[in-house]
Each structure stands twice: as C-alpha cells, then as structure tokens.
Amino acid sequence: MTTTPIADQVADLREKVAEQLPAEALKVFGAEQAELAVAEPPSGIAEPGTPMPDASLLDVRGRPVTLDQARAGRPAVVVFYRGAWCPYCNLALRTYQRELVAELDERGVVMIAVSPQKPDGSLGIVEANDLTYTVLSDPGNRIGRALGIVTRSEDRVLHAQASLGVDLTEVNADGTQDIVMPTVALVDDRGVLRWIDVHPDYTTRTEPDRILAALTETIG
Length: 220
Hints:
- The chain is an alpha/beta fold.
- The chain has one domain (6-218): Glutaredoxin, CATH 3.40.30.10.
- 44% of the residues lie in helices and 16% in strands.
- It contains ten helices and nine strands.
- The strands form three sheets. The protein has a five-stranded mixed β-sheet with strand order 5-4-3-8-9. Strands 1-2 form a two-stranded antiparallel ribbon. A two-stranded antiparallel ribbon has the order 6-7.
- Helix 6 (119-129) links the parallel strand 4 and strand 5 (134-137).
- Helix 1 (6-20) runs antiparallel to helix 4 and helix 2 packs antiparallel against helix 8.
- The longest helix is centred in the first third of the chain and has 15 residues, at 6-20.
- This is thioredoxin-dependent peroxiredoxin.
- GO terms for molecular function: thioredoxin peroxidase activity.
- It comes from Streptomyces griseoaurantiacus.
C-alpha cells in the first residue's frame, strides 16, 4: 500500500494541470476551486441509518443492473464520481484500486463506482485505470439525487470545460450538465446506508485509510 495520501497526489496533479491549461481556463477553474474550498456540504444529504437509494443503472456494456444486484447481498463501498473526463476522479479511482480493493475483498466488501456518464465513459475509465471493481452509470443521477449530492457547475465553468472539449450534454447519459459531488457511501449487507462523506470541492477526496476506519466502525 502506498503511503502517499490522495491530497498529496492532488497537489502534484494541480501543478501539472496548471502547466497545461490555457490561461483563461486556468483562471476560471482556479476561481471555482477557491469558492468550493470553503463550501459546506449541502443540506438534505441522506442520513446514515436510512435505506440506501437504488435505481436501474447501466453497466459498462449498457446492460441494466441495480445497485442492490451489484452488491449481491454484500456490504459495499460506493464511490460517486463526476466522470472519466475529470482527472481528479481518475486519480482517486486508481488509488482506491491500489489501496482498497484487496483489503475489501478480505473483508467480503464490494467496491462500486457510480457516475452520470454514458456506459462507454465507464468502460473507458475502467480500461484506462485497470479497475477490477464494478463501475456503473446512473442516467439522470437518480441515486445521486436521492442522496442529495447532485450539483451543476456555473456557466463560466461549463464554457471553460467546453473550450477544452468536454461537453457534459454529450458525456452524461441523460444529456444534462448535472454532476455529483465526489462522495463515498458505506452500505451494509441489508442495504442500509451506514456512513457518507461528501466533498463539495471536487479536488478533494475521501482518503483510503478514512474509508477503512469508517468501515470498521460502522460495519465491522
């Protein structure tokens, strides 16, 4: 297991991104990140102890599957991410693969990643990062809305993304620009939400050691 926290990896990534982005886009994203860094999680986030929301999702081949079916009666670490276009999401999902999957397997816990993107985007992020865990698409962010973690970037950010070739209306399965705040939810074997960690700032993520500690405390 690496000892490099996601936060330190993100710091390195931000330096590389700053060197590659056009100045105008960098200015827009920098202002957005400064605002999000002091933002509080929204009200209305699902409470631990309530049933984990479920919906008809799509696997990487576009086949329908529910979250409950993907869990198959097992406890789960469910990671909500923005999409394959987000470099911070790729970094986090790679880190979870490297640092969590083997430990979760030993505990009988399944990892599932969910985003609003089309199945081909899910397949792309699996192949690009050699992910062995389940990656699903949630058209319309139905689970994300039920959890209270759906958001949408301001127009200036969407325009900056479009200038770089990222059009969320083309990326997302429902054709909208809605995304989820990066979130980790722990679900027990009965489908009950036991813990949730929401990050309004998309450059920050739940560290692997915090996930394992929460898993031990809430599910065992």
